[in-house]
Amino acid sequence: MALRVVVIGATGSVGQQTLQVIDRFPDKFVPSLLVGGKNLNLLKRLGQRYSCSIFSPWLKGSEKLSLAELEDADIMVYAASTVDYLSHMSHFLSLGKPVCLSTKEIIVEAWPLIKGFSELVRPVDSEHSALWRIGAKEPGVKSIYVVGSGGSLRDKEKEEIENATLAQVLSHPVWEMGPKVTFDSAFLINKSMEVIEAAHLFNLRREQIDIVIERTGSVHALVNFVDGSRNVFISKPTMLIPIAYALSYPDTLSLDEELTPSYDGLEYRLEQPDFDRFPWGKLGHYALELGHTSRMAFSVADEIAFECFRNGIMKPSQILSFLVKAMEDYRAVSYPESISDYFSLRHDMIEKMWKEVRAI
Questions:
Q1: Which of 5, 61, 251, 288 could form a cystine bridge with 206, CB 3.0-4.6 A?
Q2: What percent of the chain shows pLDDT beyond 70?
Q3: In the chain, helix, strand, coil percent, each to 5?
């Protein structure tokens, strides 16, 4: 019998690719509920196409999404670029049901609140899916590499990075992603986030995690073991592979996504990040040093920094200072004990940070 799938963020990039996987395996998966945002026309078309329930807070007549609406599903894909459905995800996990999670913000900000269900969380982010598959959770791990392609500004000098336009920042050389993730990638902020994610998902210390650059986007992760061996994960730069693996785990679906000819051999080239040009790439390790509330503040501040950059309010150097200040401001603040307290603190953070932005 096909598994009933809830897709939160169904109209976004990862949500749409999740539906592509479902379309290829209709005997294994069927959408039961699609949750979207402001793209109501697309959400309605998807609901009609799959004959399933839909929800959006912008849909006329919609009330809050009830927890009961999730309970007949077998598996959830959380692909929304928002933490708003954290309570729904937590409830789903409490039922003993797996969540395929691609939303960095939840892993970075809210991990202490869902850590008790960690065995049910299946990472969909390409790097962490790859780390999972090649043994990052297994005994004997010495260290891991979080791999990035370098982003849209990887060949720019410091002055060019400081004066980069929005169009330049959003022109990723390898991946097709949403604007916020592409912005994060351009400044290696996403790698800092992924360092935090890796520490949380695989219970690693910050000194066990390094960042490397592999320009083609085909090398996704490396794991070094205490016996001197190394596992490497190589695939096409496509989200279909991590999505399909998370949905089908522990099985592997036949996607017929062939490796490019250059990877038929064993050669790959790794580069160390230039943290002089990209100091944002060091913030993940700093956040791990400061604590959970600082990690939460880092993620919240990053959302605001993106909006500020998009609207011409902040330059990249100001973004760096803004993110560091946000983390340091909350280093002594206790982490919330409940989801309601988490949302209360998050609201306060957003208000405080926007107040600081208006003072710039």
A1: 288
A2: 97
A3: 50, 15, 40
Q: Write out pLDDT tens, residues 212-260.
A: 999 988 899 999 999 999 999 999 889 999 999 999 999 999 997 766 5
State which H helix or E strand residue 105 sits in: helix 104-114
Nearest to 263 by CA among 220, 229, 218: 218
Q: Is 326 exposed, middle or buried (0-12, 13-18, 19+ CB in 10 A)?
A: buried
Integer CA distances (angstroms), 14 to 26, 126, 250, 253, in order: 18, 11, 21, 18
Measured between alpha carbons, how far is 119 from 270 in angstroms, rounded to an integer?
A: 31
Domains of the chain, earliest start first: 3-97 (3.40.50.720), 129-240+268-358 (no CATH)
**Cα separation, 150 vs 214, whole angstroms:** 7
Q: What is the per-residue pLDDT across 33-51, written as a single tens digit (0 to 9) for each?
A: 999 999 999 999 999 999 9
Distance CA 231, CA 224 (A): 7
- pTM given for the model: 0.95
